[in-house]
Amino acid sequence: MKSLHTLALLAAALSLSACGGDKTHDARLAKAGPNPSLAALMKVADARIGDRKAASCKACHTFDAGAPDMAGPNLHGVYGQPMGRNRPGFGYSAALRDAGGKWDDATLDAWLKNPKAVVPGTAMMFGGIADPLNRADVIAYLRSQGR
Fold it and tell me: Are 119 and 99 in contact (CB under 8 A)?
């Protein structure tokens, strides 16, 4: 079962790398400026595009209020919440529960880039999103959900 989970995550990561048909990516990236900061990327990020880019995350997570947890917790309303505590009934790894911090722009950006670098020992089996604007779009989507 674990190998199926790993294959599903690998397929999801590969599909995310295709940018989800984002025809505005390069123009938005140029608008953010050369070597853009996370703040500059967030100014051009698009929550609707982030929703599409988060489609690969839906292999393990739900995003709708009231939806059940899956292999990963429901991520609705996670933005601004303490790490490893958003869904009290979910079995977070001890590493994530004990990590401290909250899901803000900087933490989510680092997490979406490489979860294991942010929280060594996390159970999250996801290789990360290399493109910084793709990460910013997903963060904008998570921000848009509120509590």
Answer: yes
